Amino acid sequence: MGSKRSRSEEVGEEKEAKRNYVPRYTPGKRPRSGSLPKVDYVHPLDPTEELIVDQEWTIPKLNLFIAFTLDNLVEAHRTLFKHFIKLPSRKFHPQYYYKIDQPISINEIKSRDYEYSGGETKFLLDCELIYKNCLSYNDPDSLIVKNAQQVVFFIKNEVLKVKNATKNYLVNEDVKKRLLDILDILLNVTDRKMANILEEGDGSTGDNGSNSNLDDTLKICEPFLELVDKDEYPEYEEVIEHPNSLNLVKSNLEHGYYHKIYDFVTDVNITFQNALIFNDEDTTIYSDASKLLKCFNVLIRKKFFPELESAREKGEITLEYDKIEYKKFVQEVEEEEPILSDDDETNEEYNHMEGLGNGYNRGPLARDYLLGPSRTNANSDSKTDNAEVEKPAIPLKFNILPVIKKHNIELKKEPLYFNLIRKIQVSSSRSLYEQAIRPLKGLYNDMNKITWFEYIFTDGSLSHENSDYSITLPPKQNSVSIISELAYPISEQNPAIVVVNKDRVNPIPVLNGDAFDEKKARYDIKLTEGTNRVIFSIRNNVRNVTETVKFWINVLP
């Protein structure tokens, strides 16, 4: 019988193994040798996926959605996205621009306009081009290629949520039960059952011939039930950003982890997408992951949602939206008023008019024809609903039409100026400036190569209607100092905060002579490359007044 080993010995061996482990993948670009494979710029990677097959879908304010989504993904997964934010350096990778015909990056995508018919598909193709270019230029088994594939999957998962915003209901007990039923079908699926599901969904029977010859005993989900063993595959952690498994998804669903339906759908998709990223295309597990991913999405689209809508119509269940998401992506489209073109044959306002003021009008000219808009007014009261007999309008001299009263023209309001914020100063970092003008002994700073900047916003220009500003910093500067001058000292009755990209910044006292000026505060902040949001806000609890200034500061590379 072998001797017992203590827990400390096991931990020590584990640490020793980690120290001796040599990473399989190395970061950075790994160019191929020889000629590069041709890049397909026209066709999508997977022509059968939902985002490509469905054509009748749009995203309101698409450009804004793209910028917001990409910024959030870059911030959340910087290790994956860092190589694709900007185009490769022409100095260090000049050969890249000779071998790749259409270079693209996250910044390039954010700068393009996609708000036109088919813009959503073009956006997806541009995102896929990041992976296609990377795969063509680098070794297929390199880390950067696998990162590029994950980048595309993450973007598509976010687009899928917004595309199905009208079906992305909150997960209540009824919805949870139906999702568990779908997951149980997936967990028990065999080759034959999966072929039948795909056949019912899109007419595909897979690559294994007739369904009757397929195996109906082996559950092909078994390799995906548990997380990948780190000891057996230590390189898995190098590649996969978000490891996942079906049992973990099921546990999260049972314990109420998922807030909305597509939170659950995304997690299942990621489980199979991880297998597609980590494994080679000629392996069985890659083939099974690809088929299971299609099978799951067919179950969601062709079985889960039709049954869910049918149950709602029968009154068996109650479905609710996330109010914030619904207002952002759904309600805005539904509340838009229909606009009739002036030459529309169904526009009854204009159909009985032959001309204006030419003596051939069939009836008396209505009061608001000349300046009346072409929008339909759904809330206008019908004349037949008014029981009172209206007196005929007195004709105006010279046929002057009183349209101004009808259109509720509002006078320009006086701006409501700030009372709490007297001045805000945005300038180059004070510490860097002091180092430049007073360098340490033995150091030399070339002042001619440094561009200093300073923007001052005073109480005469700050108001509740005019409190958003956009600033582009000179090149190679990302450190900024903000100095605020307030009407009252910062205290519990007058709290003030500065938030930089969701991070709160603490103030630094400002000296005025030999004493600290309690009405002033300095904030030294370091910005990231790209667009940064800086918010300064102060509240007077006695008067119940809040004043907020927002700066959108763009840092150049």
UniProtKB/TrEMBL annotation:
Q: One Gene Ontology cellular component annotation? A: RSC-type complex
Annotated Bromo domain residues:
76-145, 216-286
Where does this protein have compositionally biased stretches of type Basic and acidic residues?
Answer: 1-19
Q: Which molecular-function annotation in GO is an example for this chain?
A: chromatin binding
Main localization is nucleus
Q: Keywords, A to Z?
A: Bromodomain, Chromatin regulator, Nucleus, Repeat, Transcription, Transcription regulation
Q: Positions of the region Disordered?
A: 1-36
What residue intervals traverse the membrane? Answer: none
Please state where this protein is localized: Nucleus
Task: Supply one GO BP term.
Answer: transcription elongation by RNA polymerase II
**Annotated SUPFAM superfamilies:** Bromodomain
The residue stretches assigned to a coiled coil in this entry are: none
* Record-given protein name: Chromatin structure-remodeling complex subunit RSC4
